[in-house]
Amino acid sequence: MGTQILHQGEGQIVADVVFVHGLRGDAIKTWSDGVTCWPRDLLQYDVPNTWIITWGYDSNIAKLAEFSSQNSIFGHAENLLSDLAMKRRKLKEKIRPIIFVGHSLGGLVIKEVRFGH
Asked: For the chain, which residues make up each domain, given as ranges?
């Protein structure tokens, strides 16, 4: 879980593209067909001057035999911001735009990042 850089563009990086999976999703499998992870394997050719990042978190709200996630959307948003801050340490990285791509619950987490913080 946490952030994983799928592609680090070269040269002048213009933005970070951050993928956030949805309910009961996975940071890689959500964006894959079993063989190809399109953000990692395909998107980098369309936007080569970006960092492509995926962020994973415990999005299982109901597990039958195990504990389920007790984190709120707000808590997930705080964790996402914290994880991104750890990856974006240099000044150039801190000020460049972030493009979020979310699925399902991931979209709500992104909305909380954008409007709740």
From this structure: 2-116
- Arch. (CATH architecture) of 2-116: 3-Layer(aba) Sandwich (3.40)
Residue 18: is it exposed, middle or buried by C-beta count within 10 angstroms (0-12/13-18/19+)? buried
Burial of 50 (0-12, 13-18, 19+ CB in 10 A): buried
First to last CA, the chain: 22
Q: What are phi and psi of 24, to 5 degrees?
A: 60, 25
Would you say residue 50 has pLDDT above 80?
yes
Q: What CA–CA distance (Å, rounded) separates 105 from 51?
A: 23
Residue 16 CB-density burial (10 A; 0-12 exposed, 13-18 middle, 19+ buried) = buried
Closest CA to 56 of 94, 105, 15, 99: 105
Residue whose entry in the numeric block shows the structure tokens 């964790």:
79
Per residue in 58-77, pLDDT tens? 988 655 546 556 688 999 99
